[in-house]
Amino acid sequence: MKTARFFEALFIASCFMLSACDNGKIKVKGADGTEYESYQECCSANDFEAAHRYLAKMENHHSDNLDEAKDFVFKQEALFLMGIGDETAKKRIIYLLKEEGGNDLHIDMLIDLAIDNDDEEFAKKLANQLGENHNHLSKTLAKVVNYISTKPSEENKQFLMTICTKLNSTYLLVDLAIKNDDKAFIEQYALNNFSFSNTALMNYLITQKEKKYSAIIIGKLTEDEGRISKKPQMGTVKFDGTGKGTSEFEEMCNNYIQSVEYFNSKCNDVLGAAIKNKNLYLAQCVLPKFKSNIHVDEPGWIGKFYNYKITDDNEDINSARATLNEAIRSGLFK
After folding, report:
1. For residue 151, what are the contacts with CB-CB under 8 A and spacing of at least 6?
2. What's the rounded Cα separation, in Å, for the pair 10 and 29?
3. What is the rounded distance in angstroms from the CA atom of residue 104 to the CA atom of residue 71?
4. How much is the pTM?
5. How far apart are CA 273 and CA 214, in angstroms?
6. What mean pLDDT is predicted for residues 18-37?
7. Among 75, 118, 214, 320, which one is least packed by beta carbons within 10 Å?
């Protein structure tokens, strides 16, 4: 019984050895009967049908370098097809991209080639192959935006808006509009989605020193002001001997303190940018938006009651007022 198992194991091992040997002896024939012993030879002869048959055999042999081989064949075939440059060749490239599931580096390489060839339509088709999980999305899409924007037309404008929206990258268009001082685009597409996270847009609006832009910034602050947590009761707050409600009250105090700190930090950002860009009107408008925070003292047990003492904390307001007054006094707005 042991002998039979030994020969069975020996037979299986010999099969694996033969398979490994065959892996190094893959051969395919091209359409003209030429025999190729490597995928590199297939590509050198521009016989990509044979190259794909070679890859299929490598896959059947579970070759270790299959991914490397596929990458090599794709690049060689894509370069060959780009050299041809007709519609059939371009359709083949798109087919190859879809077949492999959209390789980040391959798309990036092809977009570079399309731009170098000044092939506007193909650059757009390649851009449409980009997905949100593209590892180099910002860099690659930025190339497309910068290139297509040099060819102004309503069709291209809509293309860029569509693809940047699809890929959650409209900030690229906003950055371009800021660079080109394109107020029409900014007012049409950017202002409705203004947020303080887009510091480039905020700074651009501030530098314009137009009241309508200042109103948008203040309006956004007012919107965010509504998200401040509920303010706790001021003065002395007492809880009876059961201690019931103290943890909830402390949580309310902490939430209010944190939300006011966060809101006031936004106000500070606007104030600082307004001073830096000499926008006195906006600086004066943002000053009243600062919120008073609270200070929580905890005297603890006094008789039968557990006590908290809540008072106003105007440190942020006073600091902002002092900052603006100093900026005015030192002539920063002249």
Report:
1. 120
2. 34
3. 12
4. 0.67
5. 12
6. 73
7. 118
